[in-house]
Amino acid sequence: MSKTEAAPEEAPRTAAERGRAERAADERELGAAGSQLSTAPAEDLSNGPVGIGVLGWARWFWRQLTSMRVALVLLLLLSLGSIPGSLIPQTNVDELKVADFQKRHDTISPIYEKLGMFHVYSSVWFSAIYILLFVSLIGCIVPRTWQFVGQLRGRPPGAPRMLTRLPAYTTWRTEADPEQVREAAAAMLKKRRFRTHIVGDAVAAEKGYLREAGNLIFHVSLILILVAFAVGQLFKSEGGKLIVQGDGFSNTLTQYDDFKSGSLFKTDDLAPFSFTLDRFDATYERSGPNLGTAREFVAHVTYSEGADGKPQKKAIEVNKPLVVDGSKVYLLAHGYAPTVTVKDGRGKVVFHGAVPLLPIDNNISSSGAIKVYDGYTDAKGKWDQLGFAAFFVPTYGGKGNGTMFSQFPALDFPVLNVGAYHGSLGVNSGLPQNVYQLDTDKMKPFKDDQGKVLKKTLLPGETLTLPEGAGSITFDKDIKQWASFQISQQPGNNLALTGSVLAIAGLAGSLFIQRRRVWVRAVTGKDGVTVVEMAGLGRSESAKLPEELADLAVTLIPEAPTAPDPAPEPAKDQVAEPAEAEGAEK
Amino acid sequence: MILAATTNESLAHTSNYLIYSAMAVYLLAFFAHMAEWILGSRSKVARTAAALTADASSSAADSGTVKVQVAKKGGGTAVLERPKVVTRSSSGNRDVPDGPGAAGGDVKGDLYGRIAVSFTVLAFLVEFSGVLTRALSVQRAPWGNMYEFNLTFSTVAVGVYVTLLALKKNVRWLGLPLVTSVLLDLGLAVTVLYTASDQLVPALHSYWLWIHVSTAIFCGAVFYVGAVATILYLFRDRYEAKLAEGGKPGNFATSVLERLPAAASLDKFAYRVNAAVFPLWTFTIIAGAIWAGDAWGRYWGWDPKEVWSFITWVAYACYLHARATAGWKGRKAATLALLAFGCWLFNYYGVNIFVNGKHSYAGV
Ligand code: HEM
Q: What pTM value is reported for the model?
């Protein structure tokens, strides 16, 4: 609307010159009346830098950056820049996939690496786009806010000279005198919550400021969300813990299996609480095409808040984390922990406990290691260590089935296959130990009759006896389950949520509310009869504006009843008769 | 333990029959619409050209005189003459009347158009029952996999169209493209995407399923309606521009495009539709983030589905910005709107089929 050029394509071939000149005049005048109907910055990018030297250029650059067009380009870039991250595996999503990708594409991978393609969302170029966007956003919001405050303190601009040129216009003659009409119109508009005042011979009124307010709130809340995101990244902590049924966890750094935290996180920030895994329930689809698909996972825990809080019960499910003291405990995965008993040659129990094994497929075929670090001495009484490569299936297919893999995730026919080794488990090598893997480098297998690694598939209660009085391992009947949890603490979530709610509210205000102005002019005509003119102007053309204007007029007419039509006289300031074009506004 | 965990087979079969029946009725609606367009092509209206070559200063439209009823104090009503309101387009818009619709004023064509609408409403009801029985057969929201997603999507799209018709909006021009694509959508659903009705995996047990997925489907359906209007806008705008330059568009183009609403009306319609659902789409993403926070322990993890929702969101924000920026109105903004819808489509089909992510519920 503030555009001051008349597009050539619509200029009529007949009387084109006249039309263009008229339009230009209109636009100038409407420009004044329509100014400030929004706080959107004017587009004046074609100008070069004003002034000279660094300051001039800086100012020019700043104006560019905070212009709508650059905001548009940056937004486009942001969406384009997000694409590669969804197609190329990302380190922070799945490191294994990244490694796999790098193995398969050895020419392109180094290039991708340099471009940050494996961590797009924390790469320099992606950060540059959104930082520029947010600088632009701030540079845009601040002046717009001031401008808006100014508009709120000021008053709607007075009526343009030619109301007939406005998008919606109506007029009638009345017996009432102009003053009276203006008063009545002002009162009526005020009652309808227009900001209203009388300037000269006309009433000026405006409504729908919430649109601008909503728009500003929306953009501010975008900043709020970004800040919340940053705070979350800097102060967050996130760790994993695998817990076997009956075991417990207390929230200190040493208890975690793995732990990550933001750069400003301090260990004392960990909320003090503890919990015990009482029981884990899982149910699976027993028929149909999705046979074996999990239907329900529930971890029943007892937790206490603080150092010595009262124990409380809670069921943690996939979508229902436990929330204690700002930390959230999520259920991540589960599996089986068969209980085994290992004895030495003299029958002394050197290990007894549940050994968590990691699932390797959907039917929870699981593998892992059973390690006996201390207390074992071999047949000759010499100190040694034992290791067993363990493979467990909850539902065995049977001997003739040809597969060792599990047939179903529940404990229908559990078997445990163990392969036995002795020697050094390698704990003292200084390298981090993976508890779920048996490093057999420094170990010797026990041999069976054929000289192969001694291996046996055990049913619950069965025992594998090691050769030459080296002892035995028993697969106990008590098979436990384990559950793994992610314990995370992320400040800033509430801020992000507040920002999001504000963003939606602001957006709704910004998109659904029309900001519009209405003018009512009442003057005494040549023949002494009052002429009332009403016109409306909105941000965008809307079918509602004429409707509203008509409504307002209908409300005003009882106060300024229509007078009989005048004797035909040449309209002095009137547009040509409107063309009969039915159905233009629907 | 979940109650009623077994699926009700007979209800599931009923649902399948209903979906096939709905497709048959949509097909009838499609033929009726075709008949409407073909019969309508007999009428010769060239109002656009007339309007474009007329003197611009006289091209103000008149919203007409309407009688309004006003309640009087002592009961009873008085009929007030509603004043004439003269409306003018702002500069940059051609003052062109809307086309008469597919039937082009042809009585028989109009009859077929009405038949088509009746079939569409009928098909909508049948399809809706199909979705409902599907939901009942599994005792959950019918949004567990892509088959169900497709069904609901087209049901909602037609629902939006039927609602607009019921509100007496001038949208019958949407009928043919909508019915055509609904047929394609359903065809895809029953062939490639078909999944027998079944229970959900635990990650989908959440009331956020209802909130997040229902709004996602709704937004998609409305964005779709917006995209159809945008495409038609681009054609019609080119047509009007050609006429305004004194060109002569081909016979077929004239016959079809002449009957569509004016470019300005189409543009406005598309904008309203897109702008109206944008806040809801924003909400959908936020609801998804909250759900992800509960289910996966992080609100935002740049999972492909999340990324593409974000891209779609930014693309629509671009479009809205473009509309507010002088140099980008009209065709350029329309192109952005189509790009944005393309992102939505890719998020729905592309990501589910080609990209592996956490949203692998889709069961294709
Ligand atoms: C972070 C990225 C941004 C997003 C997602 C965004 C989104 C939006 C959306 C959805 C609207 C439409 C609301 C409406 O039409 O009233 C809008 C309007 C607007 N935006 Fe942004 N915006 C962003 C950045 C910016 C920047 C950097 C600027 C300033 C240069 C800006 C200036 C404006 C203005 C002036 C309007 C109002 C236009 C009008 O009055 O119709 N925005 N924005």
A: 0.79
